[in-house]
Amino acid sequence: MSSGQRLREERERLGFSQNDFAALVPVTRKTMFNWESGAGHVATEALAVWARSGLDVLYVVTGERLPIPRAEPGLRQQALLKLFDAADEDGRRVIEASAAQVAGRPGG
Questions:
Q1: pLDDT in tens, 63-90
Q2: Of 23, 25, 45, 51, which has fewest CB within 10 angstroms of its CB?
């Protein structure tokens, strides 16, 4: 997949029409079309503007996405993890079954 195709994919993911996305930069819809079709190279200034609207610049340029960073567990989650780690296997099964029941999922 070309960078132009990835640009179009990102624009559509963000819910923009070509006209609306082009207007953010601002360039014409024809320029936007040319970038997406590979007839031209996207200006870095445009990428910087679109990044503020949520464009994944790394993906457009390289085709690779960064993994979404996972939030660190809060104090309650940390305390629960410590209890889980301290429990024997039977205790861990009880904790897992209780959590699944409270979350409304079958399990245990």
A1: 998 777 777 878 888 888 899 999 999 9
A2: 45
Which alpha helices (H) appear in 1-108, and where do they start and end? 3-13, 18-24, 29-37, 44-51, 57-62, 75-86, 89-102
Domain, as residue range, for 90: 71-108
**pLDDT of 23 strictly over 90:** yes
CA distance 35 to 105: 47
Is 60 in contact with 10 (CB distance < 8 Å)?
yes
List CB contacts of 81: < 8 A, sequence separation 6 or more: 73
Q: What's the number of domains the chain is made of?
A: 2
Same domain, yes or no: 35 and 79: no
Per-residue pLDDT at 57:
94
In this model, does residue 103 exceed pLDDT 90?
no
Asked if 19 and 12 count as a contact pair (C-beta separation under 8 A), the reply is: no
Residue 10: what are its φ and ψ, rounded to 5°?
A: -65, -40
Threshold 0.90, pTM exceeds: no
